[in-house]
């Protein structure tokens, strides 16, 4: 395993590091300490290394145009309606950052942190103590985020936490994939997703508590189809694409919940998770103001597949429970199997 840690940029006078791992097959992942960002997923091709995820040249581009691009997301992925929730009989109000709602951990989420970082063997390790005084969520958290690269071309994202006080924890990664070598959007890519239902969402994208059927609709990916077929079938809705929470159907532990593939170049990314939901977002309203290194900013420039516990679990434990008690530890893992 080839490893490297180098200065990438600065933010608020602090150094931002780029940390890299290269395996025996010349596949490379790199991450940034700012946001514990997944910066590159490079696979070897006849034309040279190809990055399968979107990225920018400098931190200011993330801050100005797309603050969640490839970032680690927490404490809680998705939206909390009006920033309000309960743990047992205790009511909590956290800071809002999308109108009256709290999105992706609020205004001081994981994406805003310049994490302590190191490379050890085949792992990139980020650590930080998350405090109530900074992000307004109850309790403090000791968080370790680890990216592991294996020689069979797997990327493992592990989220480990120790809670000091009761709190909530439902993290994810907001990587945007585009498997095209040239400057194309993602409509030609195919997706298979183990989901027959999705959450019903209100006009502010907050779960209503109801579910909707995906099968035999543009939202359905139970059998493989192109993202373009889905997007073209959704041009009459305001989003003109997908920005939805898919509930994962029961499956064997060794089965991927999602497989994203290129139709001709044999590149694919299979995603494995034991959590019960994945957010699928097809970058419906991205524009030329976003200065990607290898792609033109445009609608459908990338696709995000964010494994998590269904966000309505915060008010309905039939969908899970991501609350933590004082002294409790929690671990989640998302695995990406890359083929090229």
TrEMBL record:
Keywords: Carbohydrate metabolism, Isomerase. It comes from the Bacteria. One of its GO terms (molecular function) is isomerase activity. InterPro entries: Ald1_epimerase_CS, Aldose_1/G6P_1-epimerase, Gal_mutarotase_sf_dom, Galactose_mutarotase-like, GH-type_carb-bd. Signal peptide: none annotated. Pfam families: Aldose_epim. SUPFAM superfamilies: Galactose mutarotase-like. Gene3D superfamilies: 2.70.98.10. Belongs to the aldose epimerase family. This is Aldose 1-epimerase. The lineage of its organism: Bacteria, Bacillati, Bacillota, Bacilli, Lactobacillales.
């Amino acid at each position: 395993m080839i490893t490297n840690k180098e200065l990438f940029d600065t933010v608020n006078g602090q150094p931002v590091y780029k940390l890299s791992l290269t395996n025996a097959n010349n596949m490379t992942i790199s991450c940034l300490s700012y946001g514990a960002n997944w910066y590159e997923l490079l696979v070897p091709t006849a034309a040279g290394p190809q990055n399968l995820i979107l990225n920018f040249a400098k931190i200011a581009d993330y801050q100005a145009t797309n603050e969640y691009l490839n970032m680690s997301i927490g404490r809680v992925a998705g939206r909390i309606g009006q920033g309000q929730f309960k743990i047992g009989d205790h009511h909590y109000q956290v800071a809002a950052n999308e109108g009256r709602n709290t999105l992706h951990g609020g205004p001081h989420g994981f994406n805003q942190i310049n994490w302590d970082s190191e490379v050890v063997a085949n792992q990139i390790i980020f650590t930080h103590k998350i405090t109530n005084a900074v992000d307004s969520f109850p309790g403090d958290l000791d968080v370790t985020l680890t990216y592991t690269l294996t020689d069979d071309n797997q990327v493992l994202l592990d989220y480990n936490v120790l809670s000091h006080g009761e709190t909530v924890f439902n993290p994810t990664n907001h990587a945007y994939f585009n498997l095209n070598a040239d400057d194309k959007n993602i409509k030609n890519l195919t997706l298979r997703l183990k989901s027959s239902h999705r959450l019903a969402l209100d006009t502010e994208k907050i779960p209503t508590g109801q579910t909707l059927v995906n099968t035999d609709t543009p939202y359905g990916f139970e059998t493989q189809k192109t993202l373009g077929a889905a997007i073209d079938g959704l041009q009459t809705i305001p989003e003109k694409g997908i920005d939805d929470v898919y509930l994962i159907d029961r499956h064997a532990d060794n089965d991927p919940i999602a497989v994203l593939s290129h139709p001709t170049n044999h590149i694919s990314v299979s995603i494995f998770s034991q959590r019960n939901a994945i957010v699928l977002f097809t970058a419906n309203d991205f524009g030329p103001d976003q200065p990607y290194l290898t792609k033109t900013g445009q609608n459908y420039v990338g696709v995000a597949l964010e494994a998590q516990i269904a966000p309505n679990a915060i008010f309905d434990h039939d969908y899970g429970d991501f609350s933590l008690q004082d002294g409790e530890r929690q671990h989640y893992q998302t695995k990406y199997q890359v083929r090229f």
